[in-house]
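Subject — a protein and its fold

Tokens — whole-number codes for backbone shape
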Amino acid sequence: MALVNPFGTDVDADDTPPPMTLARHWVGASGEGTLMTLTTVDEHGAPDARHVLLSDVTEQAFVFHTDARSRKTAQLEADPRVALALVWRDELRQLIVLGAVARTAEDRLDGAFARLPRYLQLLSWVNDDALAARPAADRRRAFEAFAEAHPGELTRPPWWVGYDVVPERLTFWRGEDGGPSNRLEYVLGAPGGWSARRLAG
């Protein structure tokens, strides 16, 4: 029976490459456009989750961008611990990342914003809580009016910020058509080295 999951064809199924190398291989050299679940910790110590776009995956971190005025940003500033979940259903893959965030350097933000589709750039400028409270027709008119008033290239709004998720644990789950699923888990130890082990799926 042919395997649905191509994991074994793009890297050795029994190999344990460096975790960020494997993450970049799964996501692609740039993770731009990949949807992931971001779980933060709220003021009561409870989890809070939402989906965000993965902007980039570097050799050290998973990068995403958001509005500095948002609830998630307030939670990240109060407690930097996060979990990420990425899933590729057709490839029978899942990646769970636990780590902590650090603000993305300012000199990396303008280029990242420039790569966004225009629609997302416009949203970054106009879509706030005040707009959300207005009737749907008013929201559409406000969005269209802003777009018409700014036909050219948009600069980054000052509240558009980025976060680097520096992983401390990465768990790569792979399914297999007709065989047992399994997990390859990496845990960061001192002084900065990774240990790897395989777990049941």
